[in-house]
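tool_log.txt
---
The assistant was asked to compare two proteins side by side. It first ran the structure predictor on the initial sequence, then on the second. Raw inputs and outputs are pasted verbatim so the downstream comparison step can read them without reformatting.
(1)
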Amino acid sequence: MSEKKVFDYLIVGSGLAGSVLAFELDQRRKRVLLIGNKQNHSSVIAAGLFNPITGKVLSKTWQAEEIFSQLQRFYSHAEREMGQKFFYPMPIYRPFLSVEEQNEWMGKSASPDWAIFIEKIYTKSGGWYGVKDLLGGLLLKQTGFLNTNVFMEAIRNYFVEKQQFQEHTLAYDKLSITTNSIVYGEYQSEKIIFCEGTNTFQNPYFNWLPIRPLKGETLTVQSNLPENVIVNRGIYAVPLEKGIFKLGATYETKDLSQAITIKGLEELKEKFKEIISLPYNVVNQEWGFRPTTPDRRPIIGEHPEYNNVIVCNGLGTKGVSLAPFVSNLLAEFLVKGIRLSTYDAVDVSRYYSLYWKAVNKR
């Protein structure tokens, strides 16, 4: 019998959550085996936007101050370690639709709690070519985008070079879990962490979680939009390279077909026309599923019966900003045994009742 290759953690899923967590643990000198594939997930098609003020009513993201300082540190450090560029801090501009909205934000900008995220308020057009903003708009800071494909490929290559990456789909029936160890084929570890997004429905250990797939479609377009700002009002336009922009995204909970749709295309084109007056050519259309939760909070922590089986999921539409935050929370818990003050808000234990309900039905 051949000797096992021993790791501290097996991480299943090489999307954004798994990639960020793997690197976080690696930087804490833990030996990680990252297992993943290139099946469709939202991280591949995402524009990678990070924005502390979101939603139809523009509310500040939960734990925004901590989350956004954490992401700045994490991705900047990752760039230096990888020697690659994938993190792009950039202001976001949101045109006003009414004088009332303009006045509301003038008032909010006087509050220190909001001012840290507001670069400037325009009471007349900001002068960005092609942007419909006769009433001015809100220019936000601590915003920008992550090129998720470049980032995840950099993480993949990083672990490949260390012989700590396996590209395949995990076979759950080949997984042996005991109190003291995890064994999977030739690999052995203390713990296994599942970062599978909506694929968690196939996982016998976490298929009881209330992960809800939210389908999103995006367009890649060629246009002459401004390249030094992200326009975001009902739709975002993220500059990927000279003359190329990512537009998105749709939010579909009913039609979960695994394909792009005419409906998605028309919705994005209509929203684009509402805020941009420039011509454009559609280069590509993509789709993906975001893993969301009923309370819009991520899910991290231990399985109800196996404390060496861990989950990190439910990052939803804010994966780029939440991934470093929850990875730090989870790493502090796993490596040091410390539950930081915000851990309880995202702890999987809030859904344990669903597990026991499923067990009792068997």
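(2)
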Amino acid sequence: MSPKAWYEATCTESGFICDTRQLAAIEELETLWLQLVEFKVKRNQFLGRSLLSPDVPNGLYIWGGVGRGKTFLMDGFYLCLPYRRKRRIHFHNFMAEVHHEMKLLAHERDPLIALANKIEQSTRLLCLDEFHVDDIADAMILARLLHALLERGVVLLTTSNYAPDALYPNGLQRQNFLPAIALLKRDLKVLHLDSDTDYRLLQMARDPLFMLTSDASAEFRMQSLFQRLTAGLHCVASAIQVGNIEMPVKRDAREVVWFDFNALCGGNHDQAAYLQIAHRYPTVFVSNIPQFNADNAAAARRFTWLIDVLYDNHVQLVASFATDLTVLYEASALDGEAQRIVSRLTEMQTQRYLALPHRSRGVSLTAIES
């Protein structure tokens, strides 16, 4: 199925809003899809007959405001493309891998070129979601890595909240990153997805975000909202990697993740783990949040860390609770911190909070170890 056929089929689904600006983007993705399919056919014909190879198609750089459907369209394209050598990864995770791999390749004459060769061997299409630069180390690495990947025939499809010229604004030694910006503009087609509608906010506004576990329909309502937010593009993974540990999940859709409370706050996770989740996912679902008392004080403390991190990074929370927020903490556990968390939870349901842009920036990727 091509991206255009996929989008037309999705438009017929209940609750989905077909957007004319997204349709324009789909036309560009359809063109790239056809070019990649044709490239694969021609390349297979060339093998064994000639040392020449067909020209590799240029990629796409899709940018626009939050909630406009950039990731949704990228995911649809990725699923439609009949390639094995393809990879889709969040930009944060990609850069974390880059730093890690370069340490492993430190013995090479040029670790970055060795890494580019390694990526090229396994990847023809590289989809990078939420591309941005706010760290000088990343900026210097990307300037060379992007050039090396494109030179080796890796096709890039990226999404970003920023136009290429707005990347790494006021950054240290930004002049050294300008050639990378020029490269993106030259070798990728830049497409502005300028829809006036924030579809993520629209979906979140339709339903109550907090519900009672005792409500028999709570699980179904959470499933329905998750389905609408992800348009069915969720993964079947039972766990996600957070630092050096695997955390069990109910569902994962790259930009939306769903945890059970015990998996999220019942273990030994710290603020750093929650920070990674908050930076990676604009929306987090949590089921079966209990009432807090002296018996589950440790879990309550981790829940405090979680809510603080989600709140500070403008992550949208969908959750089911054992009790109403007014009695979330029993008298024995009700202190100043508890009252502050209830206040934040209340605010996180407001339209003002839901309209805030997700803060995925400012991650110190060079500090992440695998």
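---
observation on (2): The domain at 199-354 is CATH 3.40.50 (Rossmann fold). Confidence is low (pLDDT under 50) at residues 361-370.
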